[in-house]
Design brief:
Blueprint (H helix, E strand, L loop, with lengths): L11 E5 L4 H12 L3 E6 L5 H12 L3 E5 L6 H12 L6 E4 L14 H28 L4 E6 L12 H20 L5 E6 L8 H8 L3 H5 L4 H13 L4 E2 L3 H10 L4 H19 L1
Parallel strand pairs: 1-2, 1-4, 2-3, 4-5, 5-6, 6-7
Amino acid sequence: MDQTKQNVVGAYALVTGSGAGLGLAFAKELASRGYNLVMVSLPGESLEQKALQISTEHRVEVMFLEKDLSDEQSSADIAQFLREKQIRLHVLVNNAGIGSTNPFLDFPPAFYVKQLKINVITPVLLIRMILEDMLRSEHKCYILNVGSLGGYFHLPNKEVYGASKAFVHSFTNALQLRIKDTNVSATVISPGPVETNERIQAAHKNMKGLAKKAVMLPEEVAKQAINAMFAQKKKFIPGKINRLFLALDWLVPTSVKNKILWKEMKRQASFTR
């Protein structure tokens, strides 16, 4: 059955990092398909106002939680909130993440601790706390983990970010085997460059050729990703050019790839300092 046509009255989706960028696009896309929402994001992102706007526009119920997901207690707090509200999720979108483009030594150790907590630990803990309820559900349930095209490459200036997204890929692939033949499916998406904030937009403006054409709007990525999730695809790369990049990765010699990547990372860092 086409999920966009399915009766989803009473169904809830939770989206982390939904205060802006790709996370907000996910929330709007799911609401447009009739899903009630639990939006989770950092304080100070006007989350209440955005929740009200989505609720009014799409006539769905929208709840919100302002949480710093680098705090490991936040996952337990979210799970407790769902229990108190008697919400059993049909969809979980692990979108929240922290990127980086500057040299490794530019950041203090505390930054990398926070990056790994949000990119790696939080998705694992949320799934651990929510999966049992999903498995007991009478309905089909979906998990969408947001990886990155960068998780397939070794990127200078994004050493920890790329490794964290490689973890998301590996974790989701293993989870898929664990929940095979159940009512729960898990999908990992690996977007390329996305216009999510001013810092990233500044870097994208100076791209050239295919790299510039690969840049996607959050709304485009969200629509393709949600379609892939409901189609129960195990992995998906939004954008034809991004899929081409990964296919070419098998053909280009490592020495050439490393030279290109290093040049690109230095160029991006010069525009985001």
